[in-house]
Amino acid sequence: MNSTCVKVTHVIFDLDGLLLDSETVYTRINEEILLGYGKKYTMDLKAKTAGMGMNESINVILKHEDLIGKVTLEQYRKQYLELASKYLPDSKLLPGALRLVKHLAKHLIPIALCTGSNTFEFETKMQKQQELLQLINLRVLADDPSLKRCKPAPDAFLITMQRFVKKPASAANVLVFEDSINGVRAAIAAGMQVIMVPDSRYSKPPDDCKKMIRFVLKNLNEFQPETVGLPPFD
């Protein structure tokens, strides 16, 4: 059955670059670190790593920039965490994010966060976003003990789905909001419906996934809940 014909009953949100403007912060962090090694952090490299967990992302960067054997994962991660502590707390919500989450919560639609951020990153960047946190109780982070593979593998979304108190009838009843290519691939691999909200600087719908993406939006303010069978905005 085509998942786009199935009623949406549950919603899962990515975080970085979707609800929170933290991807610009991650760009700044990696630019500063790589500059110290005489390298340049490009949008092409960002596209390859967006949505991944921290360690997976760093490994891709080190390999891509031919730094294996010159810089260890631990060395890069130490610099990364220091800069994350400095910059991430200033991350701001993206347009339409709080409006949509509040709307779904008001109508008792089960919602969750599924992010490539680990606990340290998550708590650091969400310090000033308590209103959003109070609305989304179910959260699956990159360092969750049950998670063995990060996006683009479907594992994180499937684990999130299994933890809803009220379970969806099937994965096809779950709608995922994603900004990254890795996240879109993960949602599709999980058998879920997906709406992509890409940052045109480094992300666009992958050709092999275009037919399986429900909608592509410029920002969350463009989303009309009734188009997927959810209650319309008041």
Automatic annotation (TrEMBL):
Molecular function per GO: phosphatase activity
Keywords: Hydrolase
InterPro entries: HAD-like_sf, HAD-SF_hydro_IA, HAD_2, HAD_sf, PGP-like_dom2
Name of the protein this chain belongs to: Bm8641
